[in-house]
């Protein structure tokens, strides 16, 4: 098996050691980058190859790009060209009962998934994040480091949750909902639903920019 890590910048270099640990039997690992000026260079002793070369090699892909919209575009490009995806999960990630994963997941060190959770495709959970019981995470969602996603939260497709944000626990009847393509700012404490395509910041989290009172 040949693994392609789509991206060659900071997060891709953080994902590389996890790939090495998890897929130590693979034949080779490459970074894949669409920037022609980078092709042929090396990062952390790993060669950067073009997407076209990745297709020729039938690489098993992981997309180490934090931006949800770009990650979706690259995933669709891979699928259209016959490439499949691997899940990259650090050995010390905690996974409890009844956790369902999609494809293309990246979970880095010290991430925890508790119980009865559904995770969509191409979800990123960065270091020290957790997803608690009865959560539903959509496709192409990004959790930056130390995101606290408490129980009964629904995070819809393409949402981005910033570093150290806290998502309050929902209830059986009324889960907390982070809408599609919403952005939760770093350090925000989310106590109410976040509408789709909305950015919230602060404690308690409020829309940004703030709505005019006029």
Based on the model shown, name its key terms.
214 residues, alpha/beta, Rossmann fold, UDP N-Acetylglucosamine Acyltransferase, domain 1, 2 domains, 8-stranded mixed sheet, 3 helices, 24 strands, globular
Q: What overall form do the CA principal axes indicate?
A: globular
Number of domain modules:
2
What is the assembly state of the chains in this entry? Answer: single chain
Q: Could you name the CATH class of the largest domain?
A: Mainly Beta
Average the pLDDT over all residues and give the rounded result.
96
Number of helices: 3
What is the helix/strand order? EHEEEHEHEEEEEEEEEEEEEEEEEEE
Number of strands: 24
Q: How would you characterize the largest beta sheet?
A: 8 strands, mixed
Low-confidence stretches: none
CATH superfamily of the largest domain: Hexapeptide repeat proteins
Strand content: 25-35%
